[in-house]
Amino acid sequence: MIQTENLTKVYNGKTAVDGLNLEVGEGEIFGFLGPNGAGKSTTILMLTGMIEPTGGRCLVDGIEVAKDPLKVKKIIGYLPEDVGFYGNLTAEQNLDYFARFYGMDAKERKTRIAELLALVHLDGVTQKAGEYSRGMKQRLGLAQALINDPRVLFLDEPTANLDPEGVREYRELVEHLAGEGKTVFVSSHILSEVREVCRTVGLLAKGKLVAQGTLEEVARTLAPSDGDAVRIVVETREHLPELDDPGIIDVERNGNRAIVRAKTDIRDRLAATLFEQGVHVREMRVEEPDIEDVFMAIYRR
Amino acid sequence: MAAERLFTVARKEFSDHITSRRFVIILALLLVISAIGMHTGIGHYNDRLESYNQQLQQMEESDAMVKVVGPYPGWMPEKPSIMLVFNAMMSYMTTLGGVLAIAIGFDLVSKEKETRSLKSLLSHPVYRDEIINGKALGGIGALGFAMVLALAISLAMLLVFSIVPTLDEFAAILVFGAVSLGFLLAYFAIALTMSTVAKESGNALIYTLVIFFAVTTLLPVLGMMAGDAFAGDRPEPPQTAPMPTPVGRSVTGTASGGGYFTTSVSTKTVVHGGEVEVDPEWQQYEEDVKAYTEKRMLINDVTNLISPQMNYYKVAMAVTNPRIAVMMNSPYSTKPMPEETPGLAEALSQVWMNIAALIVFPSVFFAATYIKFMRMDIR
After folding, report:
1. Are residues A172 and A234 in the same domain?
2. What percent of chain B has pLDDT over 90?
């Protein structure tokens, strides 16, 4: 549904997005992760037809965005970071203005706006948008992104201004939208947020895609290289005896606990050996790289 | 560019303008002050009309063959035009009208950048040119609305005072309205450009005001200085020959902020001992002065073409007071003043350059706005 080919954007000689190749399937909830200034928002701006790429191209539903931005805008919804509205208009008036660009008639607009305002809990709010709190603006932003019932939804830092209740509602909404078959592209620098809603992620750093896949795949790809070794964490009730297995490379001991570096996953053999020696195993697992640590390492680069 | 999207933007902008407190306050002030000016103008018009009627009456009462009421035989008093009443509106238009135009334009784009509503708007299916053209159209509509209101109130006041314009006068009123709108558009265009260039509305307003004062006060002064510099020293009158009797015209006019200034010292004859003879020294001096002043005027007029105020003043004067406008535009004409007041078309033809300048000036700024907006970084 979303595809970028060598997508590049240069601002005043500085490369913001550098040869990005990305693919997001239909109905996916894709998390676009990266530290501030990594080029996430610039990528979204190119994907939504707001700016033209310096090089490469991007496609949404097979339509090249730079060539036909209006056609793309008709099938997408976009919630910008720090979304803004016309302060002199109410939520309804703001949405009505935007809805007019989709050729919706008055009745259609009225029905759709009422639905959306109820969805984001802004129905019955008579204040003008200029008097809204940041959280209310964010909710209204979500409503304006959904005004055309889009097939693809781009959300840039969607939970930035929401309170915990708002965040919970937002997550439910994203799940609901994905359930309807919509593709959701969430850009965020908050790992925990992406982790909650996204099935696949792409990690961007300094304008380049560092890794793409499920969170675990990405974490494994980016974890510090330990050759082909498997790290097995073992904890026993009794004192851990000497371990003798041809697959073992080395063992880091710490009382009843040890980290075994092995050539392959030898947990079955280890469990059997310990059982034979009458040692009770409390824990035995392959140590996965810590996602937070991996991402933090990328963020700090 | 789809007309539907363009008009969607224009309609919203127009609605925003006419419902904004800022617009309503300035417009109300403009209308009230214009109405007071009109009231004074109507008073003058009535005085002139009364004088005209008295002159006619005196002529009828005097000997039909020897009319001695006027300055020369055959002279007929001229009925005053109601366009004189609109003279008062000119100065209000150049000040409050200008302020109104600036007030609606200076934050049209910058405010959208500040509130980030522009980004939200651009995320929907609408092209940038439709947005900027719609904004311009909405602003023009609002200024047009203000002009229509001002003219409607003026007409209503005329009717209240039992003054009914003729068809020609009505056409002149409409032309006056169009010219005034052209003037307002000049400042609206400057404000819109600055709003697009500046990141913040405060800066946009400051830049606009700087240009406003530059073209209203600095430019005429610079024009005169350039005139002085390029025309050289003023010719000295002959020391020995006697002073001739000036019979030419002398016209002085000033627009709001000053600037327009012409003089004539055209002389014709010197009488010596009952014989009419032309002193060659004085004749040479006259020609030198004429050439000097014409050169000075040309430089001044060319400089003033950049000033919307001066162009407006000249064109509006041609509409409201064509006789004075003709004198201002050709102060060295040796022809006697026409007995008949020039028609509207004739008066306008004399100021075609100013009309063109009134069209070109906002067009240049609108074009600059368009280019800047299309290339604007909306991150």
Report:
1. no
2. 29
